[in-house]
Amino acid sequence: MRLSSVRVTSATGAKRGSMTAAKASRRVIPIRDFSSCTFCSVRRLCLPHGLHDKDLSAVEELVGMRPQYDKGESIFRQADKFTSLYAIKSGSVKTYGVLRNGKEQITGFHFAGELLGLDAICNEIHNCNAAALEKTVICEIPYNSIESLIGEIPSLHADFARILSKELHRDDEMLMILGNMSAEQRVACFLYNMYRRLKTQGEATNEMHLPMTREEIGNYLGLSLETVSRRLTGLQNNNIISVHNRVIKLLDIEQLHSHCI
Fold first, then answer.
1. 3-153: CATH homologous superfamily?
2. Which strand ranges, in their side-by-side order, compose the sheet holding 92-98?
3. Domain ranges across the chain
4. Of 1, 8, 80, 101, which one has the greatest count of Cβ atoms within 10 A?
């Protein structure tokens, strides 16, 4: 079945009280209609990393559903009960909180092969909201089943340690960007970080399509929309990147990296 033929019930604009019903009514495609973990192009970045075939089959059985989300559609909300981890099979997601004044504060952008929900394990409550930035397919993995399987497959312990370590490293990088870098450095580091993450997926990343808006980039980096636009123009004038709407072509990756040092 082609992905384009899948119908999804949109929950966009639904009130929080109706979210459970909306999720229940969403048409979820059985695993057999999608590529399994065995053939997934981003499996090495996700939970089933370096597993033997029989262990990988056991992990595949945990994935109860792989729903497709439209742009802006909520995957989970802050204070929702934590029940599952969410592996991004394709597409991209933003996580964000809501400040006391009602404004959105973006805390991260997440791409194919990355896991959502790890920060909710400790208190079993989601600490942020997650929404699709574009058409996105998610592999939902019930956490109780993962805990049971870890006892049977010791290598999953190492996988979780690896994934949690990557999350901590990203947090450290973000603190460095916001605490010590100029506006131009923040924008350059954002682009270079995205380049590295997409490169890990095996994509040809000298040309990147940004799924987020410039306003969202500014929100994440603590910059205004105007400042983000000016800094992108500055990098373009220096022949480090070229910009066409949301398409960024990296002309000099070494120079881009040098702005992060």
1. Jelly Rolls (2.60.120.10)
2. 74-76, 129-132, 92-98, 104-111
3. 3-153, 181-258
4. 80
Contact 128, 119 (CB under 8 A): yes
The tokens for 249 are 């072509």
3-state secondary structure 128-159: CEEEECCCEEEEEEEHHHHHHHHHHCCHHHHH
Q: What is the CATH number of domain 181-258?
A: 1.10.10.10
Q: What's the whole-number mean pLDDT along residues 17-38?
A: 48
Among 77, 73, 79, 89, residue whose Cα is nearest residue 40: 89
Residue 28 token pair: 């979820």
Could you give phi then psi for residue 230, rounded to 5 degrees?
A: -65, -40
Helix or strand or coil: residue 249? strand
Query: Which one is predicted more confidently, 155 or 39?
Result: 155
Residue 12: pLDDT band (50, 70, 90) is: very low
Rg of the chain over all Cα atoms, to the nearest angstrom: 19
Which two three-digit tokens encode residue 211?
A: 């799924």
CA distance 90 to 136: 5
Residues in CB range of 216: below 8 A, 6 or more apart = 94, 106
- Write down the pTM of the prediction: 0.77
Range from 92-96, 116-120, 240-244, 252-256 carrying the lowest mean pLDDT: 116-120
Residue carrying the six token digits 């604009």: 13
The β-bridge relationship of strands 84-90 and 92-98 is: unpaired
d(CA 241, CA 63): 40
**Are the CB atoms for 63 and 140 separated by under 8 Å?**
yes
Distance CA 163, CA 166 (A): 5
